[in-house]
Amino acid sequence: MNKVCIIGCGMIAQSAHIPAYKHWSDDFEIVAVCDAFEASAKKVAEEHDIPNYYSNAEEMLKEMKPDVVSICTPNMMHKEFAMLALSYGANVLCEKPLAFSYADACEMFAYAEKQGKMLMACQSIRFLPERLAAKKLVDEGKVGDVYYAELSRIRRRGIPTWGKFHLKEYSGGGALIDIGVHGFDSVLWLMGNPKPRSVIASMSKIHADEIGSAKSSGAFKDNVDTSNFNPDEMNVESFAQGQVTFENGASLSFKISWAANLKEENNIVLAGKACGIDMENKKIYAGAEDIFDLEVGPSGFEDEPFYGHFCLIKNVAEVLSGKAEAFVKPQETINTTAILEAAYLSAAENREVMIEELL
Questions:
Q1: Do residues 18 and 31 touch, judged by C-beta distance below 8 A?
Q2: Predicted local distance difference test score (pLDDT) of residue 315
Q3: Do 317 and 344 sit in the same domain of this protein?
Q4: 149-191 pLDDT tens trace
Q5: Percentage helix, strand, coil, to 5, in the chain?
Q6: Based on the domain organization, do 133 and 118 belong to the same domain?
C-alpha cells in the first residue's frame, strides 16, 4: 500500500486526485493533505475522510513519510514543492505545467533520477478515447510519418474564475500554459515525440466581462469559490496562436483560447504520409476519396469528468510495482516545456524563437 500526501486543496485535488486515489484503494491510501490555508486543508480532510491535514508541506512530509505526493498548487509553486517532495524520498505526480522553462524541467528530472524516484507530469488528456485510438494507428504504422498537425482548443468563454489562474504572478501565463500544455503534450506523444526546432506565436486578451460558467472553464462539479475573481486584474492571455516546426521537417499549427469569438473546439488533426486523422470528428482520410470512421473504444470511466486522472494514477501504481513504464515520459515533458517557453518568448519579442536559444 502506497501512502499518499496531497499538496494543494483546490478544485483539481478535490475533483480529480482524491477520487482517483480512492478508486484505486488497493494500491493507495491518502494519509494527509496540505494547503497554505489551514481551514481549506481541514475542510477537505473532513469532507473526504482523510486522517491528517497540514498548512506546512515540509512538516507533513517529515511526519507522514509518503510514498507518493500529488502537487496540486498554483503553477508557480510546482517546481518548489516537487523538488521538496523528491528530497524527502517521495515519488511525485505533478499537475501541469511541470515547469516554465527547459532548464527547470531538465533540472527537475535530473534530480528525480538522482533520488531514484518517479516524477511525472499530470498530462491526463492523453486518455481521451479518440487520442488513444489515433495513437494505436500511429504506432502500428498505419498513419505513416506525420508531417503536419493542427491543435485547436477553443473555449468561447471559459476563463477560470477560481484560484489564481488569471494572475501571472501565480499562474505564469494564461490559456496557453493552462490548457495549451495538454494539447502540445498530446501532439508530441502522438507524433512520436519529435524534437522541436522553432516556435512563432502571438497572444491577445479580450475583456473578461462574459466569463461563462465554472463548468465551461473546467470545474465540472461547479464546487468552486469564484468570489476573489476580478476581471480587471487579469494580466495573462486569453488567446494564443502560432506554429511549431520540428527537426524532422514536420510542423504544428495551434490556436488556444479561454475566451475568443470563435467556434468551440477540442481537436487534433494529423496528416501522415499514409492517411490523416481528424480526432474530434473521428474520421480517417486516405487517398483522394476514402473516408473511414476512427474506431474509438470506451474510456472505462465515462461517469467521471476527470477520468484521465483515474487512468494516470492507475499507471502510477503499475510503475511503482514494476509492472509498467511511466505513461508520460520525461523527454516528452521536457520538449513540451521547451515549446511553451519559446511561445511566450516569441509573443513577447514578436519574432520566431529557435529552441536552441533555450538550451
A1: no
A2: 97
A3: no
A4: 999 999 999 899 888 888 999 999 999 999 999 999 999 999 9
A5: 40, 25, 40
A6: no
pLDDT digits (tens, 9 = 90+) for 262-288: 999 999 999 999 999 999 999 999 988
Whether residue 288 sits in one domain with residue 183: yes
- Contact indicator for 163, 10 with CB cutoff of 8 Å: yes
DSSP characters over 33-86: EE-SSHHHHHHHHHHTT-SEEES-HHHHHHHH--SEEEE-S-GGGHHHHHHHHH
Confirm whether 302 is domain-assigned: no
How far apart are alpha carbons 123 and 194 in whole angstroms? 18
Whether this prediction's pTM lies above 0.90 is answered by yes
Domain residues for the domain of 71 are 2-122+307-324
Phi, psi of 358 (to 5 degrees): -90, -15
The conformation of residue 280, written as its DSSP 8-state character, comes to T
State whether 318 and 338 are in the same domain.
no
Please say whether the beta carbons of 235 and 203 come within 8 A.
no
**Residue 83 in grid coordinates:** 523538488
Q: Which residues pair with 286 in a beta bridge?
A: 290
Q: Which residue in 11, 40, 6 sits closest to 215, CA to CA?
A: 11
Tell me the CB-side half-sphere exposure of residue 287, using CA atoms within 13 A.
4
For a pLDDT cut of 90, what percent of the chain falls above it? Answer: 85
Peptide bond into 160 cis (omega under 30): no
Please provide the distance, in angstroms rounded to a whole number, between the alpha carbons at the two ends of the chain. 40
Q: What is the CATH number of the domain that holds 110?
A: 3.40.50.720
Neighbours of 263 (CB within 10 A): 8
Q: Which H helix or E strand runs over 171?
A: helix 168-171
Residue 121: beta bridge partners? 94
Q: Could you give the number of structural domains in the chain?
A: 2
